[in-house]
Automatic annotation (TrEMBL):
One of its GO terms (molecular function) is S-methyl-5-thioribose-1-phosphate isomerase activity. NCBIfam families: eIF-2B_rel, PRK05720.1, salvage_mtnA. The lineage of its organism: Bacteria, Bacillati, Actinomycetota, Rubrobacteria, Rubrobacterales. Belongs to the EIF-2B alpha/beta/delta subunits family. MtnA subfamily. This is Methylthioribose-1-phosphate isomerase. Its EC number is 5.3.1.23.
Amino acid sequence: MRTVWWEPGAVCLIDQTKLPREQETVRCTTVAEVAAAIRGMVVRGAPAIGVTAAYGMALAALNSRATERAGLLDDLALAKTTLDAARPTAVNLSWATERMLRMARAFRSGEPVREVAAKLLEEAHAIHDEDERVCRAIGDHGAALLDHGSRVLTHCNAGGLATTGYGTALAPIRTAHTQGKKPHVLVDETRPFLQGSRLTAWELQQAGVQQTLITDSMAGHFMQRGEVDCIIVGADRVVANGDIANKIGTYSLAVLARAHGIPFYVAAPTSTIDMCLESGGDIVIEQRDGDEVTQLAGQSLAPAGVHAAHPAFDVTPHNFITAIITERGIIEPPFDKELRRVMQEA
Ligand code: MRU
């Protein structure tokens, strides 16, 4: 399954707003189109928007009319501002655009702009390939936490569609499935955007993993009945003290998991770790349009004119998290010390 890929002169995306009904491709040939696709959730999920933004930066360089280094750097800085503003919570977006800009700055002034642009495209491909490797490593580390027949609850979609094909929270499940452990996944539908029912359920079905779809409000009921062995979610940002931001509803799951003594795991690549922010309160939470709450597939679900809130993410404090599964291994508390150690190892 491809989420994001490059064709000459275009960033291509599977349109996740149309899944699972239709499998349509969106081709973006300008930075503005890439930013609009990220903002409009054509592509979503922290690692996937990071890779898409990296290709967006390559596109900016290839489309640039600049004839020298300074002009190219101006165009790239502008592209970075446009792309970073598309969605504020997932750090992978600015992580990727910063990496691209840093690379462009490292070229000497005499280097032809065309050649710099070609090398930036190579860097975007490298970011893409790394994501695939990183997710598989998360799968290997995380699968060791699952027993035969483990019942795992997940929220939102932190699968192949949220990355370049393998996923973060779904990676341990996929790997355990390949190892013959027969995991069973409880999939939260994830109101209001339904990433669980539309995307995770579709992916797991294709992978042949056993699953049961539930509404978000059923999660506590299944935990209370002893039908959940662990929870694995992804993250949009992990900060220095171990607090995480993830899809709205994650915090409630973590609190419920604590009440029922259920391990609560976060699976995330180190590109999602932001050591510049101290605690979760510093994370900017994206506020999306209330229409995404009051409407579904063009149908109104609420009285006309009613005000609806739509924070797209929430913060789970580190003391509710059992461990963070990264490509470099499983990080356990104390998270501040352990995150610093792991990030310094790079
Ligand atoms: O609003 P979305 O669909 O982009 O939110 C996605 C999530 O919250 C994911 O759990 C997170 O980005 C991790 S994806 C591997």
